[in-house]
Amino acid sequence: xxxxxxxxxxxxxxxxxxxxxxxxxxxxxxxxxxxxxxxxxxxxxxxxxxxxxxxxxxxxxxxxxxxxxxxxxxxxxxxxxxxxxxxxxxxxxxxxxxxxxxxxxxxxxxxxxxxxxxxxxxxxxxxxxxxxxxxxxxxxxxxxxxxxxxxxxxxxxxxxxxxxxxxxxxxxxxxxxxxxxxxxxxxxxxxxxxxxxxxxxxxxxxxxxxxxxxxxxxxxxxxxxxxxxxxxxxxxxxxxxxxxxxxxxxxxxxxxxxxxxxxxxxxxxxxxxxxxxxxxxxxxxxxxxxxxxxxxxxxxxxxxxxxxxxxxxxxxxxxxxxxxxxxxxxxxxxxxxxxxxxx
Length: 343
Prior knowledge:
- Its main location: membrane.
- By secondary structure, this protein is mostly helical.
- 63% of the residues lie in helices and 5% in strands.
- It has helices at 37-47, 49-66, 68-75, 118-154, 156-171, 174-189, 199-229, 233-240, 245-253, 258-281, 293-300, 308-336; strands at residues 8-11, 14-17, 24-25, 31-32, 87-88, 94-95.
- The two termini are 51 Å apart.
C-alpha cells in the first residue's frame, strides 16, 4: 500500500490542502474567513454590552453638541437669552415653580438670578467640553507619537534628552500649573474691546495648555513599544533594502502602533474634559456668560440650598459623559489587547 503525501497549510484552527484559496469551507460547511485586527477589535466591542452602551451614550452626546443650534431654535431660547418672566424678583430672582422652573417652556429649568435657559446652556456648554477634550487629546497624541517614535528608534542622546523631558513633564502637578499659566498667557496674547480675552483665544489656550502637560504619557507608551519593534525582522529587512529612516518610522513602525495610540487617545479624552471643567469651575477656563459645564457648576454651588436642581442637572450629565468615555476607553483597550485585562 502506498501513501500519498500532501502538503498542508494552516487556516485558522484547521489544516487545508496547499494551493487552496484562503477562504474555504470546513467539513461541516462553515466558511473560514480571515479578519483584520480592526474587525476583530470591533467584534469584541460589539460583544461587550457595557462598552456598546458607553459608545451609544457618547455618540448621543456628540450628536446633541453638533445639533445645539437646531435644538435651541426648537425650544426658542439661546444660551444667553434671559427670560425675566421665569424668575421671581420677590425671592431674589429665584425661578418660579418647583424643580428650578422645569416646564414645557424650559425643559431643564432656568438659572437663578439671570433667567437663562439651562437646557440651551448645557447643549452649548457640551460643545465647549467636547471640543477642548478631543482637540487637546488629538494634539497631545500627535506630539507624543512623534516624540515617542524619535526617542525609541534613534536612541542615544536623542532618547536620553526626550526621556528626561518626559520625566519632567510627568512630574509637574498638571492642574496647578495650568491654573497658573492660563490667565497669564490669555492676558498677554490678546484682549477684546471690553478689556478681556477673546473667547476663541481662551479655548485655544486651554487646548494648548492641557496638551502641553498630557503628551508625555503617550510618548512614554510609544517609546516602549518602539524599543521592542525596532529589533524585529521586518525592520531589519527594511534596512537591508536601503529604506530611509522616514520610511521605517512612518511606514513600518507607526502602522504597528495604532492599537496603543488609540487606547491612549480614548483614555485621554475624558481626562481632558474633566480638566477643562475643573479649570472653568475655578475661573480660569471659559468665563460666563459663555456656556460651559464647569462654569455652570461653579455658579450653581452658590444656589444649592435654594435651587438644588441647578447643580444636580449639569453635575449628573458631566458624570455620565466622563463615565461613558472612560468605559468606552476601557472597552477599546480590552478589545485591542484582550490579554491585558483578564487574568
